[in-house]
Amino acid sequence: MGELLQYAKRRADSLRGDNVTKTTYDAKPGTHLQLWLLVFAVVFPIAVAVIVSTKQTGVVTSLGDLLPGSYAVENYREALVDYQFGRFMWNSLAMSVVIVVGKLVVSVFAAMAIVYYRVPYKDLVFLFILFTLLLPVPVRFIPLFQLMNDLGWSNTILAITVPYIASATTVFILRQHFLSIPTSIVETAKLDGVGPLRFMLFVLIPMSKGVLVGVSIIMFVYAWNQYLWPLIIIDSEANQVAQVGLQLLQGDVQGGQLSWSLVMAGSTLTLLPPLLLMIVFRKPLLETFSIQQK
Amino acid sequence: MTTVTLQNLRKEFDDVVAVNGIDLEINHGEFLVIVGPSGCGKSTTLRLLAGLESTTDGRIEMNGQDVTTVEPKDRNVAMVFQNYALYPHMTGRRNITFGMKSSGDFTDEEIDRRVTEAADTLDIADLLDRKPDAMSGGERQRVALGRAIVRDPDAFLMDEPLSNLDAKLRIQMRAELARLHSTLETTTVYVTHDQTEAMTLGERVVVMNDGQIMQVDEPQVLYDFPANRFVAEFIGDPAMNMIPVEIQDGRAVHETFEIPLPSGTDQLKSNQNGVGDVQVIDGQRAILGIRPEDLHLSDAQTDGQLPTINAEVNVREPLGDSLLLHCSIGSTSCNIQAEPRTQVTAGETVSVTYDPARLHLFDAETGEALYHSESRQSTSEQAPSKLST
């Protein structure tokens, strides 16, 4: 069966005029089936969410209910305008952008210091930075809550952004990338008397564009999906972010009127910005996180 | 005027000694080549000169001023790297001007004028608007050279600049470098592992091994009068044959042959042709050095009076312009560069003779040169060498 498929593939290639002798990967017939199953498993819940968001009540009890409804415009309008979901999305966007920019600035400086400067106990410092990976933000909630209150930052954008700005992951990825830049380029700059800031702006950052974009996307998605911390530290509805705002769409739950279609409309909306970014920047993203043969 | 002086220069990396106390004087406008095998400390020496490494000990002077602890940018030297080190996101022009603009010592008009000049000198005007991606290896190296020369530095430091180029281009660039140096007359220190490059480019060549200088001399002198076994084997391709012998009464005695050392024992003893203070004593074990091109297949008519050596041919390598024979003389293996188209087959025993003016003796233990059959004076006077057997 496998051989037959291989033959058919080669035949098709030759008909298309491709080079017949090129190496083809020995894909077993089951592989595609597995891939499709996996894709289905990932996409199905999202597809259901999108379908439900177009229905009036949004209760799915049979397969027949999985046909798109006609209340899409009505539902999305209600979520964005009546429930101010647009406002939450805007807050989320502001939070994510501040976190991404802050992280990049801090991490570029940190990685540059770690890679290019002779600092005493440099490796120990880097190890300590990596060590912070073992302490995720939720572990630090209680002291952080106290600190934010003491600083008077609670209920502001500072509270949901500043604690996230230091990033061991970003420092690590950038460090690895900076190390891959040939030392002779750095040394040429040294001999030419190029100052550190000028070196960073005109050499390091342009040479790291791909990695910086890739890291930014990951950081954006991570920031965008923050839920627990904003829920704790932000208590005014006007400053709340989209992930927390979703539960406000549930409507009058006590009255037994849990509006699933509205919740799903909100979920679909929150999904869009990261999805768009992923689609637009998929190339640098893959380059950043794939193993490269050099 | 740029002279560079290294005094007892030493560099250690943890417990590895990369450069072990070298003294060197580089003259103004000189093209000095440092050559040696991998890990001999040649690149480290260059990097110490550039200031990219800090010295462990010793002193570097430029024009009489101590620059040992001076920052690289304040030494006014330009370096050319093996991998060109061009900024990949900048055009040729920006690559050349970036450093000058950063230092802030030049006006825009000055920069433009110098770039035009350098572009003319190196013939790279059409590369200025291209990025390195769109240049070939040779073009990239030319732009890198352009970047070095626009600043009009006191010295060029070149770290194997031609090693990434293919053989043909390397020869072409080699000639271009020589031309560039004769135009600019800037003091140049050039590091390479390729002895052909060293011989063709260098006005003087420094041979290094294990962090130490083995010999500093003009290329032909290095070739004709190697100071020790290392230099003798390193310079010249194919390498010099090293045959263990014993000295007896002015003759080099091997298990299968014995040949007289021209100028005889008396002169050996009086050290006329010997090197430095070394003395050759009868019965001393030594290494006889003969270059493959100084051995040839014996011809009864012309070489009548010369002793012959029997050698068994193991492998023949026709090189076109010559025929290289890998032979064994007794238990010693040895290469012979024979005339091309010579009819010799592997397994055959051939009778070999040698050029008596081109024999070398090295100490069996220390490897120091004991004797060259021709004295340095006689070569400089172009006197024909005499055979005194």
Description:
- The complex is a heterodimer of chains A (294) and B (389).
- Chain A has 294 residues and is mainly alpha-helical.
- Helix content of chain A is 67%, strand content 0%.
- Chain B is of the alpha+beta class.
- Chain B has two domains: 4-224, 3-Layer(aba) Sandwich (Rossmann fold), CATH 3.40.50.300; 238-380, Nucleic acid-binding proteins (OB fold (Dihydrolipoamide Acetyltransferase, E2P), Beta Barrel), CATH 2.40.50.140.
- In chain B, 25% of the residues lie in helices and 31% in strands.
- Chain B has helices spanning 42-50, 92-103, 108-122, 137-150, 167-184, 195-201, 219-224, 229-234, 264-269, 376-380, and strands at residues 4-13, 16-26, 31-35, 57-62, 65-66, 77-80, 155-159, 187-192, 204-209, 212-217, 241-248, 251-253, 258-260, 285-290, 295-297, 309-318, 323-329, 332-338, 349-354, 360-363, 369-372.
- Chain B has a six-stranded mixed β-sheet, sandwiched between helices. A six-stranded antiparallel β-sheet of chain B has the order 13-12-11-14-20-21.
- In chain B, a hairpin with a 2-residue loop joins strand 17 and strand 18 (332-338).
- Chain B starts with a strand and ends in a 9-residue tail after the last helix.
- Residues 264-273 and 380-389 of chain B have low confidence and may be disordered.
- The interface between A and B is medium-sized, with 17 and 24 residues.
- Chain B: This is ABC-type D-xylose/L-arabinose transporter.
- Chain B: One of its GO terms (biological process) is carbohydrate transport.
- Chain B: It is a peripheral membrane protein.
Shape of chain A: globular
Structural class of chain A: mainly alpha
Largest sheet of chain A: none
Oligomeric state of shown chains: heterodimer
